[in-house]
User: Fold this.
Amino acid sequence: MDETAGGSRPVDFETATAVHRKRRRPLRAEVVSALEKVVGPEHVLSGRAALEVYARDSWPLAALRVHHGAELPLPDVVVLPGGVAEVSAVLEILYEHEVPVIPYGGGSGVLGGTLPVSGGVVVDVKRLDRVLEINDEGLYVTAQAGILAVDLERALARAGLTLGHFPQSVDVASLGGLIATRSAGQFSTKYGNIEDMLLALEVVLPGGKVVRTRLAPRSSTGPDVKNLFLGSEGTLGIVTEASLRVHPRPEKRETQSYEVADFVKGLELIRRVMRTGLRPAVIRLYDPIETAHSFKGLASQGRCLLLFVFEGFGRLVDLEASAVDDICGPEAERQLGPEPGRHWLEHRNIVRALPEFMNQNLVVDTLEVAATWDRVADLYRTMTERMLKVKGIISASAHSSHSYTQGTNLYITFVALGPDLAAAERVYYEIWEAAMTACLEAGGTMCHHHGVGLHRTRWMPAEHGEALEVLRRLKEALDPKGLMNPGKLFGEVD
Amino acid sequence: MDETAGGSRPVDFETATAVHRKRRRPLRAEVVSALEKVVGPEHVLSGRAALEVYARDSWPLAALRVHHGAELPLPDVVVLPGGVAEVSAVLEILYEHEVPVIPYGGGSGVLGGTLPVSGGVVVDVKRLDRVLEINDEGLYVTAQAGILAVDLERALARAGLTLGHFPQSVDVASLGGLIATRSAGQFSTKYGNIEDMLLALEVVLPGGKVVRTRLAPRSSTGPDVKNLFLGSEGTLGIVTEASLRVHPRPEKRETQSYEVADFVKGLELIRRVMRTGLRPAVIRLYDPIETAHSFKGLASQGRCLLLFVFEGFGRLVDLEASAVDDICGPEAERQLGPEPGRHWLEHRNIVRALPEFMNQNLVVDTLEVAATWDRVADLYRTMTERMLKVKGIISASAHSSHSYTQGTNLYITFVALGPDLAAAERVYYEIWEAAMTACLEAGGTMCHHHGVGLHRTRWMPAEHGEALEVLRRLKEALDPKGLMNPGKLFGEVD
Assistant:
């Protein structure tokens, strides 16, 4: 675990990305011409304003740098192919000319996963935005990867169906991005995470080969090819199309909340609910800080809010609500009825904009980890304690929002003081280092659903141990020239 | 799809395996000595009787050859390592000396997946048979890969838990084999298939490197390493340990059956049940031939039996039974009550021994495929029609036993006449060819849960298309010398 010892680790963006920025090579004009020939000149962007848009995703550190007037690496050009054949032709050209490729969907990632740290060409798939088939009998949908999650959900709603996948980024995230980052939605306890939904995909490999996996409810014909691309974060290819499980729209929805004495008690109640085998759509537990912040006036000071949403087949919803009440009612301080759940449903995707914080010299970020039930209470204590020791931190609070029979996630928000860029970056990197190291030492996984991107690569060796070697061999097998989204996911370069 | 056109395909075992048998090289004495040094001479078997045991798994064609006195390729030696360190040392030696490795668990595979077609060393993991941890709080178990499924289940039962995984081979299959072949159990509709259970694993790569994946309820830290080995059938490494989700033992179990007019009607009822989101533990639908054969006196001639088992949380069991009755009751010819389900629960793992059939010159095998609901009725018709056209076939019957919201599997049994080995092999290969080709053309997947082994490799190009290239690159990345279970899974050698 030496690799996670904080001492000599880089504590600013420039140092952390130096090795990648050094690899930048000028993009030759002939490559741009070739790309223009494939997608049309109007779909190749090279103006400064456009390049600045694609220089960042939703990573708070990138926003911080922009706020302080610091530079971010720009891509050389951005191409917007209009279909899989164009994606294939683009990747063929870029691979032949050894140009880095940065696949781009909604740009809603929060870990720098699309930052063009070695320059190169951003391939934005947003023009691949069609729903290709809604199959009501087989309960699946096939759509192109550039469609926004919200548009896919709207198309399904018109057909009386739902994907059941509602990440907070639903309005801005693309389907391909959900797959590439191994997304989890707010209703995951019932509907599963993206890996539980994916039935088949089409992906363009580096070099341009188009691969489609066979659509089937289940298959045993070797390792699951589509699974290789789940969580691949643009480092193995570009997802262009996917088929996903869908569900009839819920007949009924109920919500019910409890006030519990402390966070660990709340975790224990969730564990007991999950153990029944019932699957409420949403289970959320907030620590006292987040309860006070998000449910003002709805729960008592110093207590934790435990919130359930049940939806689906009507009689099952009734059973779930009643069984959960049997478990939580006697152990909770108070039953809070449906109001906190309604409040959450209404406000769940509203987040305070980063500029508000930055204008007050505050550094804010969230990080989400997960562990089994036997470890998660310890994880909560260890991580928050360790984070709160970092000089400059103001608060670290947590909620649990994705539960399983085996354990749950912790979604931790921290606020720190960073009066200038250097101080802000220092406190940012130090808090992350404290959090990730504590998480891994306490037996958690360093990431539940935001992915690795650029920022979490430094903890990949500690997360995976020798298994990282397997991932690196996979990378080399599919992207031997190392051109796909360089610097992301696979850990620091030796 | 030219590759699936029957014309020039090999129609006997000798032809189908010639390319692999040609690769056989004598095993040098120094390698055997080195192996003996690692595992102890008593754990290296080289007697003819032992080698004959390991020359076959439970593939009916292998049994047929033995029955007719024909040869099967023998391994050079069999080693039985006593722990992961020994597995690692054995793989290091064999890789260095370029000796084929055939990982071996329970030997219950039915597609020749452990046949040593190029000779080499069988590595039997049955001595790795310990349960390492049962974690009741986190509802997971960690066990070594050589433990039999039945012993693992017994250990869990003593702790008030269940894995919920009951393949027909439960008494003979090993945990590692279940993972390597992507197993499905009879109660999969509730508990999921092996891929839904696997939380973490330890695997020894070719060359001896030991890789362990991190135990977590869920993680988004790149492509899922453990998933690479699910369905890898011994071609990428040897699984030595695994952690799996478990469940509290069911509070209650109910069973309920219906007689339906025809198979397609029965499929439609299952589809409607699955659409509710409820998950009966077992849903089985038998066509008229199998209904008559397996439920003599319990259902009317010419009708199909539709059988449900519900188990788990008591109130949920009641709800499921009642909701299923609301759907099936009005559409079925008759409600048959609990008796057929009880009969099935009692007799489900009894199969007529192959020798009985072979003594009557009958060739019998089963094959299981899957498709989405919109395709499965057509799949059933097309496959059985096409199979019944093969000269020498006597019957082809089917049941559905693993259902999903998206579709279901078909488990097809065929009986044919094969008076001598040549005739038996001919009819065997021709029926399989007809079945697999029809399945793939009708949009199914050629395998639901038995795996690929040796026999199904010939249809891998048609199953996967360009995606097979991804699998082959994965193979080369992890096993560059091509020594792990040669001839299996990855399709015919060019």
Summary: The CA atoms of residues 1 and 294 of chain B lie 37 Å apart. The longest strand of chain B covers residues 362-372. Chain B is about 35% helix and 20% strand. Chain B touches chain A through 92 residues (CB under 8 Å).
